[in-house]
Amino acid sequence: MTPMEAIVPLLVALPLLTAAGIVAMAHVRPLAKFTSGVAVGVVAVNLVLSLVLLPARVGPIYIGGWSAASTLGIQINCDALAKLMLITVNLVALASLVFSLSYMRQFTKVWMFMSLLVFMVAAMNALVLAGDLFNLFVFLEVAAIASYALVAFGCEAEELEAAFKYLVLGTVGSTLILLGVGILYSLTGQLNMGLVAAGLRKLTLAGGKVGPAPLLAAACLIGGLALKAAMVPFHAWLPDAHPSAPAPISAMLSGVLIKASGVYAMARVVFNVLGPSGPYATVLMTLGALSMVVGVLLAVGQWDFKRLLAYHSISQMGYVVLALGAAAHVLSGPSPQVAVASVCLLGALFHLFNHAAFKSLLFLSSGAIEQQAHTRMLKEMGGLARRMPVTGFCCRIAALSIAGVPPFNGFFSKLIIIVGLAMAGYPVLAALAAFVAFVTLLSFVKVQRYALEGQPSASAAAAHEAPFSMGLAMVVLAVICLLAGPGMMVLRDWLFEPAGRVLMAGSAALIGGAP
Amino acid sequence: MNQHHGMTLIVKNTTRLVSGFIAVFGVYVALTGHLSPGGGFAGGVILASAGILVVLAFGREFSQRLVTETQYHLYDSSAMAAMIILALLGYLAGGFFVNFMNATSPQSVGESVGRLNSGGTIPLFNLAILVKVAGGLAGVFLALAAFRAGGRSQGADAPSVALPGGAGEKED
């Protein structure tokens, strides 16, 4: 085992150990005040470790000394796609934790919050590293259970109701995923993703048609994962759950959880396990286009700042899934168009990363505004750009990024997605994506007008700048939003293109380890 | 211990008799988990059920004099930490979760297959899981029992959900 391979399990083990340690520390008087610091420290270490892993070539790792020849061992798969997700997850988690150092002072039992948040980070790291379907399911559940508790953290009626709704719908999604995994296990006798993919290739009918049993498994898996990703027919829980949580948790849920447990898992299953084929591509594109349009139309009418952001999450995830579906479509069939697929995947993965940055920044700034102005309603705010210059500036950068205004990162990823859709032969969907980008801009002009500009309202008049740690977290994310656009070429070579190649290698990607 | 807490005298006396045996059986199932059917999880559930039986028969107040919720938190989290440390110690033998005390390694404590001290780290994992599951399950049950008690004591028109140990109430 090389040193790099030895690092990979630490990404899961260290935060898990810390999550347990924080609970123990909180009950020992002299250690209790260090819990928040330990949480920030371990996530910072995780971010450093995932950056160290980025240039390394790490093959599949077998936990507990099992060999590759045995089909029983638990495999960890640290390929380029997993590395992209690791960096995204730990970056947003670190920003949220630094933000919550000041923000969470208004709550009791902060150690419980820190422990759950670190637990969720551990689960998401394990989820993106999982090399077999059952581990994917287990860590999806671990991350989900931590997030149910975090949504209910404030313990007020509205929060408990949202958490209960989220719990019930999330459990339905998890059950569907487990059912899909079970069907695949009964068909192939394997749980390892690469071996399941190989088994499914043998079951393919003449003419490349998919049999009814794999189709049923795919329906269960895509349905369950679409629920986790809040794609439109399955989105009802998100606009309640995400705004109800404390702001750093909203940032984590919208910023990375729906991506890791929804979009990432969906891409992994569709491209690497089931193999891209016509019916899956059509389903992904339908889900994506519906979410993109319906999400933004529902967002336009919102006056609750966090609820508006939550609807935009649905819409922006629609972009990602639509581009993934288009890539799956051009890759399926007898003559795959690899160049077009790589453009679509670049757009999808770039937008996934960008959305993590600007949506978590928007949620963090909404938390800072809510703390100062004591309201989430846009009409009761006003003039906050003058009262809170740092927060206002960061919020403005994030709003321009999500709206797709040229120098910022959101513009480039949306442009690549639109170009990719046009190249893939969907000019109507490309036009629709451009139209949705325009409506998004409209909606964020409203945010600017009512929250940041105009006459200060009674509640906003007493507002002053957020504390240092909250400002720091927001400025770091704002800098990423600013630099990711011009630095696109560097990021493409290091992050997105290798990750796209993993997806394009299709069902053969996981057999020989990381490309 | 007054009669108004918990169940009737018959249940209490029966509980007094059997709960110790249930607890010992739970530990037994976990300790022999690497040799026979059972293991840490099954043993932990049985051990927790002994504690739950005491809560049901004698009421929450009495059982909290034996083990408090804070202690359950501590057992739960330290057992989990112990398990991860044990998994990390596998790096001694080359990797995460590697059994560094197996029959061929110098740290081995096992002799022949089938004895209680065989299996290397697996009995230790079972022990950690026993404490983790028992502490976690009993802690969850106590928390739910507290919900019920809160609802009953406050009467009909008070809000029926009291949140003992509830997280994150706003201070301001």
Give the helix/strand layout:
The complex is a heterodimer of chains A (515) and B (172).
Chain A: H1 3-26, H2 35-53, E1 61-62, E2 75-76, H3 80-103, H4 110-129, H5 133-151, H6 157-188, H7 193-203, H8 212-229, H9 238-244, H10 247-274, H11 278-300, H12 305-331, H13 338-373, H14 384-387, H15 389-403, H16 409-423, H17 427-452, H18 468-484, H19 488-504
Antiparallel strand pairs in A: 1-2
Helix pairs in contact in A: 1-2, 1-4, 2-3, 2-4, 3-4, 3-10, 3-13, 3-18, 3-19, 4-5, 4-10, 5-6, 5-10, 6-7, 6-8, 6-9, 7-10, 8-10, 9-10, 9-12, 10-12, 10-13, 11-12, 11-17, 12-13, 12-16, 12-17, 13-15, 13-16, 13-18, 13-19, 15-17, 15-18, 16-17
Chain B: H1 9-31, H2 40-58, H3 60-66, H4 69-89, H5 122-153
Helix pairs in contact in B: 1-2, 1-5, 2-3, 2-5, 4-5
Radius of gyration of chain B: 20 Å
Most strands sheet of chain A: 2 strands, antiparallel
| SSE pattern of chain A, N- to C-terminal | HHEEHHHHHHHHHHHHHHHHH
Would you list the SSEs of chain B in sequence order as H and E?
HHHHH
Give the tally of structural domains of chain A: 1
Give the number of DSSP strands of chain B.
0
Tell me the number of structural domains of chain B. Answer: 1
By oligomeric state, this entry counts as: heterodimer
- The termini of chain B sit apart by 39 Å
Averaged pLDDT of chain B, please? 80
Task: Categorize the overall geometry of chain A.
Answer: globular
How many β-strands of chain A, per DSSP?
2
Helix content of chain A: over 70%
Fraction of residues in β-strands of chain A: under 5%
Q: Which structural class is indicated by helix and strand composition of chain B?
A: mainly alpha
